[in-house]
Design goal:
The protein is an alpha/beta fold. The protein has helices at 14-25, 78-83, 147-159, 172-183, 204-216, 314-329, 393-405, 412-418, 420-426, 449-473; strands spanning 2-10, 33-36, 87-89, 94-98, 103-106, 111-119, 123-125, 141-142, 164-168, 187-192, 220-223, 227-232, 238-243, 248-250, 253-256, 260-262, 273-274, 277-279, 291-293, 298-302, 307-310, 342-347, 350-356, 361-366, 373-379, 382-389. The strands form 6 sheets. Strands 1, 2, 3, 4, 5, 6 and 19 form a 7-stranded mixed sheet that branches. The structure holds flavin-adenine dinucleotide. Flavin-adenine dinucleotide binds at residues 11-16, 36-39, 46-47, 49-50, 93-94, 120-123, 144-145, 173, 263, 266, 295-297, 312-315, 317, 343-345. Residues 7-321 form the FAD/NAD(P)-binding domain.
């Protein structure tokens, strides 16, 4: 038994939804495209699961966050797929793939063949058992990767309200869940081995800002140690968390966010892998020319930094998916994918964005006792990364553009003094054309000290008008 399609997307997450939209924009015909997903619903905006979905009042629920609502595009409901003649094969796990024969075998025993395959299998949560700790299947221990996990988490939060929650892991899942647990009236303790939260991105100074706020909301931090075991009651429910440092925490529920692993196993031995993902070129094409990979599972060349990276962020999933489809449908028109890494998070009333790379020397700027501050990363004399908390749309756009331009930085103290004004003024310069070469240390724009004074004045005027606009416009908060 089998079916055949011209294009098959394997995986039904963020990247699949954005790829589907792009296929329709580029003229895919009815019956040509199929999406196979082990999840029982059409693609949705996964980041909503740790944000709007966990709110105690008016929580976000499907269908409100189907893709591609995350970029204010059309919301792709099951009806939309039907209207466009796209086959959704849901609740169906693919258990093996044969890239030589161009076939996929589902767990139900159906063979689905393709001319072009897009792998969009994303990643799975790392389990405690992979670190030698038992208890993942206890009914009050949860992870957060898909809608089923999010439903479990909501049920647990409701049944444990007023009780003790332990969050294992200090990354973005841990931080976003801890905030939601507090909002849902649980007593929260976070446990992680690093010296501060969000250790892969935050500097100690940035981390301290958020940790202090969390502490003011009652969150306790236990750092520099890890979970060693659970205590269970006679029903197999976790009652306490034992840490390697010998301490014990009472627990009514546990949330685990200790990282993810890309879902590559179907293709190991068939496609070239790198950095834990499926290696692709600037067209998102794998070592087999009929197979593309996008989203969390893809390791692609980041031209700006001259190296292959695998990113675990929603913006990269959206853009890599759209680029792959464009490269498939209009191969002669497409340039290589030229992506500026972008990551964001929203917790409590905070909202931050990060662009580029967090390597080299760090310069902090802004008011760390207030609500708008940030940091720049400078490597080999050039700006390579920018972080901003509490910015306006225009300010985020400015730091993104400035980061992409990689301006030369000669004086770190001056950059610190300029702060956000630096990005606002640099970003007013015309974008370089063509973009800087991938291995470029050199920048297209050298901002030296004498120019700063003028930029500073212009920047202050600009910042003031932006602030006035922002005040008038109010801060619109999105839930995914
Ligand atoms: C709770 C949460 C919050 C997040 N918040 C943010 C955020 O604030 N900012 C940010 O930048 N990023 C965030 N992310 C990361 C972002 O959601 C991911 O980068 C993005 O979802 C990756 O998209 P993807 O399509 O590659 O993978 P996914 O969205 O994970 O989709 C993969 C799909 O493939 C399916 N699949 C896998 N294997 C098979 C198989 N063998 N057969 C059939 N189907 C299969 C999976 O079930 C899933 O549906 C968050 C992630 C989570 C889990």
């Amino acid at each position: 038994m089998g079916r055949a399609f011209v294009y098959v997307i394997l995986g039904g997450g963020v990247a699949a939804g954005y790829a589907a939209l792009e296929f329709t924009k580029r003229g895919v015909r009815r019956g040509e495209l199929c999406i196979i997903s082990e999840e029982p619903l059409a693609p949705y905006e996964r980041p909503a699961l740790s944000k709007g979905f966990l709110l105690p009042e008016a929580p976000a629920r499907i269908p409100s966050f189907h893709t591609c609502v995350g970029i204010n595009e059309e919301r792709l409901t099951p009806k939309w797929y039907k209207e466009h003649g796209i086959e959704l094969v849901l609740g169906t796990r693919v258990k093996s793939a044969d890239v030589r024969r161009k076939t996929l075998l589902t767990a139900a025993g159906e063979t689905i063949s393709y001319k072009i395959l897009i792998i969009a299998t994303g990643a799975r949560s790392l389990k405690l058992e992979e670190f030698g700790v038992k208890g993942s299947d206890a009914e009050n221990v949860c992870y957060l990767r898909d809608l089923a996990d999010a439903n479990t988490l909501v049920d647990l939060m409701q049944s444990c309200s007023g009780g003790n929650a332990v969050v294992i892991g200090g990354g973005y899942i841990g931080m976003e869940c801890a905030a939601s647990l507090v909002i849902n009236k649980l007593n929260v303790t976070m446990v992680f081995p690093e010296a501060h939260c969000m250790a892969r991105l935050f500097t100690p100074k940035i981390a301290t800002y958020y940790e202090e706020y969390y502490k003011s909301k009652g969150v306790k931090f236990i750092k520099g140690t890890v979970l060693s075991s659970f205590d269970f009651d006679s029903n197999g429910k976790v009652t306490a968390v034992n840490l390697k440092d010998g301490s014990q925490l009472p627990a009514d529920m546990v949330v685990v966010g200790i990282g993810i692993r890309p879902n590559t196993s179907l293709f190991e031995g068939q496609l070239t892998l790198e950095k834990g993902g499926i290696k692709v070129n600037g067209r998102l094409q794998s070592s087999n020319s009929s197979v593309y990979a996008v989203g969390d599972v893809a390791a692609f060349p980041v031209k700006l930094f001259g190296e292959t990276r695998r990113l675990e962020h929603v913006d990269s999933a959206r853009k890599s998916a759209r680029h792959a489809v464009a490269a498939i449908m209009e191969p002669n028109k497409m340039d290589e994918f030229d992506y500026l890494p972008f990551f964001y998070s929203r917790v409590f009333t905070f909202s931050w964005q990060f662009f580029g790379d967090n390597v080299g020397e760090v310069v902090h700027y802004g008011d760390f006792s207030g609500s708008t501050f940030g940091a720049y990363w400078v490597s080999k004399g050039h700006l390579v990364g920018s972080f901003l908390e509490g910015g306006t749309k225009e300010e985020y756009e400015a730091i993104a553009k400035a980061t992409r331009m990689k301006p030369a930085i000669e004086d770190l103290a001056e950059l610190e003094r300029q702060g956000l004004v630096f990005a606002l003024s640099v970003s007013k310069k015309p974008a370089p054309s063509p973009p800087p070469p991938s291995d470029s240390r050199g920048s297209t724009l050298v901002v030296e000290k004498p120019i700063y004074a003028w930029h500073a004045t212009a920047g202050v005027v600009l910042a003031a008008s932006i602030a006035a606009f922002a005040y008038w416009y109010g801060r619109r908060r999105r839930r995914w």
